[in-house]
Each structure stands twice: as C-alpha cells, then as structure tokens.
Amino acid sequence: MSKLKLATAWLDGCSGCHMSFLDMDERLLELAEFVDLVYSPLVDLKDFPDQVDITLVEGAVASVDDEAKIKKIRAHTKMLIAIGDCAITGNVPSMRNPIGPEPILDRAYIENATLQPQIPCVVVPKLLKVVRPVHEFVEVDVFLPGCPPSADTFHTALTAIISGEPLDIPALTRFGA
Question: Residues of the signal sequence (predicted)?
C-alpha cells in the first residue's frame, strides 16, 4: 500500500496547532509509516503539491494571500481538515473585525513606529476587511476544534482517518479545549 500524502498549512493564527501536532512526539514516527509529509511550514517546501490526500489547515483567512492559499489548497486536496478554533470560527484573529484593518495597520506601523512610519506594501499582504473562518471560502471535510487540539486529539483523529475508522470528534475535543 502506498503512503498517503499529508500536508499542513498555516494561515492567520499563532502556530499553536502546529506545535500541538509536533507534541505527538514519537507517535509522528508511527504516522510516518502511513503518510508522507509533502508540504508544511515544518518542512519548508514552498509550492503546494498538485495532489494531496489530507491537508490540515490552521488559522483564519485574514489576507488576500490567505484567501489565495486556501483556494489553491482546496483545489489540490482530497480531504481538507480545519484544525483549531481560528480555522473553524475565526477566533483570535477575528477580534480585529469590529475595528477594521486600516486602524490596525495605522496603530502598528504609524502610531507606534519610531523610525520610518509607513504602511508596508511589499512584505505584509493586503488584509481583508473581515477575518473569516476557512469554511466561508472553501468546503471543509472535517472540523477539529480546540485551541489548540491536543496531541492526543491529532493522533486519534489522524489514525482513524488513515485507517478508515469512524471519527467521534465530540468525544475527542471541543472549542477552547
């Protein structure tokens, strides 16, 4: 049996879901018997592959770059899993929604800058007016809540998905867990 192609992606969030994923420790080696990690901030590949079996996506969609990235990921992924409360609800990144992107950028790059106050236009992607969860842009197959989901949750969920067993998400995790 050939290995499944696994990817992980990070949109607007804190990377806590990826840290929790890494907390699976030696269980990552067990999973590596069944999957090849083909794209991830953990392996620093720059281009998303053409065909991926499972992609775990962390974070909310906050910028035009995030929107383009999640649409490309969805187009090339068989099973998309939104991991963490930010990907599922917008959570912490969406706290800027009542304020809007312009006042946030002004505060960060003009009001608090001591040298060369200016809004960056090259490195920082254009922010969307409203931060939204992943499922508002693309179809999501599995929602794995938590802030972040625990390493045990990741291991149990991935093991079930890889083996084709039923997945009881409410028994594994909840929002804010």
Answer: none
Alpha-carbon dihedral angle through residues 144, 15, 21, 3, given to the nearest 10 degrees: 90
Written as six digits, the tokens of 158 are: 């991935």
Contact by Cβ (8 Å): 30, 60: no
Q: Is the dihedral of CA 79, 38, 9, 137 positive or negative?
A: negative
Q: Which amino acid is at 168?
A: D
In which element (H, E) is residue 154 found? helix 151-163
**Which residue is listed with tokens 């999501």?**
140
pLDDT along the chain (177 residues), means of 10: 94 96 96 96 90 98 98 98 98 96 94 92 90 98 97 97 93 85
Q: What pLDDT is stored for residue 72 in this prediction? A: 98
145 φ/ψ angles, rounded to the nearest 5 degrees: -70, 170
- The verdict on pTM exceeding 0.85 is yes
Residue 10's CB: how many other CB atoms inside 10 A? 19
**How many other CB atoms are found less than 10 A from the CB of residue 89?**
20
Q: Which of 64, 16, 6 is nearest to 40 (CA)?
A: 6
Distance of CA 153 to the CA centre of its chain: 16
H/E stretch holding 163 reads helix 151-163
CA 155/CA 6 separation, integer angstroms: 14
